[in-house]
Design goal:
Blueprint lengths: L5 H24 L1 H13 L13 H13 L4 H11 L12 H14 L1 H8 L4
Amino acid sequence: MATVDPDRNRDWLRALRRFKYGIKVRAKLGVIDAYCEQVALERRGIWKWDAPHWGHDDWVTLLYTCIKNNEYPPELLLGFTKTAEVTFYTPHKQPTPIKVLDAVDEVCRTNSKKLRQKFGVLK
């Protein structure tokens, strides 16, 4: 059974809150809109869309370092944008900033245990 380090947990929650706030600010400033348009152009006429596999250790490590250091590299933002709208039933839907914010929440929630282990919360 893993035990929780309360000090590391507090630092983790602060870093995660700061990271998500930074994503929301970028959405309000229109940075996410540019990525949504880029992904929409890339996907035009293509029936097989790609999206990051967030369970892979490379993506988890990238997300961990970005949350820890409060960084927002284009690779990560593009990955969130590609994750925001992956549906094969209605291929005309494209990602929106609101769906990108939902994707960020979903990715952080599904990888929470791995991220907390990397952050040192779970012993």
